[in-house]
Every structure is written in structure tokens, then in C-alpha cells.
């Protein structure tokens, strides 16, 4: 039986978890053919995956393609760069510029509540957002941010959404007890240095770089406090596409599980690919340390993912993003796939 044929067989989760981690030899793949666009040749099943090319936590997707891991699972993957906004993530799937891909859990939830037909099937890691202050600011915990100004890079940035939940759970109204101020993407730290904001809410690898370069104090991130042991990014698939291509998405999940396990064991190798290929403008050392810090060894499927989606809906209800009438348990069970069942 060929590797491709074997990859197309339905895999039980138990079998997959026993065998994942060993990345075998695979056919060579084509070079980059344009910004965020990759292609491979061969008699494989085609699928378009969206990604945020600039985000450190998404770099394993591009690395996995270059490594031949998708090919090993019988997939001809094209990556579509959907930008840094959660709204463009949704648009790329809705307009079939891509069929599936990773996004922050909180970016998926409101569009799904509003009727966007997407199914969530793989929670890939935790981490990738940081909340930073100057060490001499007197701010030691998130509770100290009451009455303060928090700088971020977009009015609806993932960092603002995540830390609004943390603020709400600390008894601080994220819309009225703090002020959010938008700065250019790469100048948020300078806003704090100039005294125009008291804190930085940003995503890795830039947040990590700010922490080092400006000697900032990290008072919260999406691996601690209410986010400890929680998922950050989740893969979703267009619902109509999934109904006609269930086996392809099952193999996407298997490939991504393998890719993220490999990243947890070889963050330096993935960081080197990220540094050389995507050129994010940050030191290789920083990229390596960021990837090593993310919980790629932890993945969420089935009931575990349902629990994360349920928690996400409950959290966003606290901030008013999700309607009070929405039942977190009902919607989580309805939109989450048990992909390896």
C-alpha cells in the first residue's frame, strides 16, 4: 500500500496519537510561488487553507507544507494569506478563497453565533498574546489596570478581545473602566514609552520582542490566569465544504496534529524556516524562544474542544460580545466536530 493510499484511510484518534511525531520522508514540494501562496505537484487531494502569515503561532503551517507533511497525508495544500484580522479570516472561508484553516477561538465565535456556517475541529495550541507594562509603572496585576489606557494595534484586535475577558473576570468593565488606544502595528510599545498608554496588548512574536527590548513587565498572557491550559487557536472548516470532503478535513487534522507535535519538539527548526522564509524582521533567537513557549504539545479534539468552545462563549458573554440568550453548551456541541471519532 502506498503512503498516499495509507494516509487516506480513516484514522482513529488512538492510532493517530500513537504514530504522530515521527515525520517520515515525503515527496519534495514546490517553492514559494507568491506571497502566502504555495503549491505542490502530484496526484493528491487539493485543499486551500487560510493562515496569518505574519503570526508566529501560524508559522508551523507553512513549515509543515515545506517539510512535506501535508503531502504525506495525501494533500495538495495551497495557503491563502488572509491578513491579521479575524474578519478577513471569516471572509476567506465565506467566499471560498480558502476551505479551512486556523484562527483565534474568539475570532470564530461571534460570526458562528450570527449564522456563519463553519465547523471547528482542532484546537492547536495555547498562548501567543501578552499584556505588558513598564516596570516602574506601579502596575503589577491586571486588577491594577482600572482607569488606565491600554495600547493595541486595532480597535478589534485579538489581544483586546482576549484581555477584555481577563479584565471582566477581574471585576473590571473592559469598555468603561479602561481606555483602549490604537497605535500602528509596530509602534504600540513606543506609545507606552512616550506615556500615551500604560500597557501594551499585542500578539507574538512582537509582544515577546517588546518584553525583551523595552524590559517590560508581563502581567498577563494567554497561557496564565483564566487562560491556563486553555486553547488559543482553533482550526475551522466551511460547513458546506466539510459535508462533501470529510476525509480531506480528517487528514488536514491529522497533518496539523503531526506538524504541531513536530514543532513542540523542534521549535528551532520551525523558527529558522520562519526567519528565512517569512522574514518577520525579528531576531532568530526571539522567534525560537516564542515558538518554544507555545503549547504545541497540547491539542484539543472532540469533547475537549467542545469544552473550550463552550468556555469561550461563556467568556464572551461577560464582555457583551455574545448575546445573553445564546446557550454556550448548545452552540458548542452543534458547531464542534469530533474529527477522529
From TrEMBL:
Coiled coil: none annotated. Residues 58-269 form the SsuA/THI5-like domain. InterPro entries: SsuA/THI5 (IPR015168), TAT_signal (IPR006311), TAT_signal_bac_arc (IPR019546). It comes from the Bacteria. Pfam families: NMT1. SUPFAM superfamilies: Periplasmic binding protein-like II. This is PhnD/SsuA/transferrin family substrate-binding protein.
Amino acid at each position: 500500500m502506498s503512503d498516499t493510499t495509507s494516509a487516506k484511510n480513516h484514522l482513529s484518534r488512538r492510532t493517530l496519537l500513537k504514530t504522530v511525531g515521527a515525520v517520515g520522508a515525503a515527496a519534495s514540494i514546490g517553492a514559494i510561488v507568491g506571497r502566502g501562496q504555495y503549491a505542490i505537484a502530484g496526484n493528491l487531494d487539493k485543499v486551500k487553507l487560510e493562515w496569518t502569515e505574519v503570526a508566529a503561532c501560524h508559522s508551523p503551517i507553512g513549515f509543515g507544507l515545506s517539510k512535506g507533511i501535508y503531502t504525506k497525508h495525501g494533500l495538495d495544500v495551497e495557503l491563502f494569506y488572509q491578513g491579521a484580522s479575524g474578519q478577513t479570516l471569516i471572509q476567506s472561508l465565506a467566499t471560498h478563497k480558502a476551505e479551512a484553516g486556523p484562527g483565534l477561538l474568539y475570532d470564530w465565535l461571534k460570526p458562528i453565533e450570527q449564522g456563519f456556517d463553519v465547523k471547528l475541529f482542532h484546537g492547536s495550541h495555547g498562548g501567543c498574546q501578552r499584556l505588558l507594562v513598564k516596570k516602574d509603572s506601579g502596575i503589577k496585576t491586571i486588577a491594577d489596570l482600572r482607569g488606565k489606557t491600554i495600547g493595541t494595534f486595532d480597535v478589534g484586535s485579538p489581544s483586546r478581545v482576549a484581555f477584555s475577558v481577563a479584565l471582566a473576570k477581574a471585576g473590571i468593565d473592559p469598555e468603561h473602566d479602561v481606555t483602549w488606544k490604537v497605535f500602528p502595528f509596530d509602534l504600540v510599545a513606543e506609545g507606552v514609552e512616550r506615556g500615551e498608554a500604560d500597557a501594551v496588548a499585542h500578539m507574538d512574536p512582537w509582544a515577546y520582542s517588546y518584553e525583551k527590548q523595552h524590559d517590560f513587565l508581563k502581567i498577563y498572557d494567554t497561557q496564565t490566569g483564566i487562560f491556563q491550559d486553555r486553547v488559543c487557536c482553533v482550526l475551522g472548516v466551511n460547513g458546506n465544504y466539510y459535508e462533501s470532503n470529510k476525509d480531506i478535513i480528517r487528514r488536514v487534522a491529522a497533518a496539523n496534529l503531526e506538524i504541531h507535535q513536530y514543532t513542540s519538539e523542534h521549535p528551532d527548526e520551525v523558527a529558522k524556516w520562519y526567519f528565512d522564509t517569512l522574514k518577520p524582521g525579528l531576531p532568530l533567537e526571539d522567534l525560537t524562544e516564542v515558538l518554544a513557549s507555545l503549547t504545541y504539545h497540547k491539542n484539543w479534539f472532540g469533547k475537549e474542544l467542545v469544552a473550550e468552545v463552550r468556555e469561550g462563549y461563556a467568556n464572551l458573554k461577560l464582555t457583551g460580545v455574545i448575546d445573553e440568550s445564546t446557550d454556550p453548551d448548545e452552540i458548542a456541541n452543534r458547531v464542534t466536530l469530533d474529527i477522529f471519532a
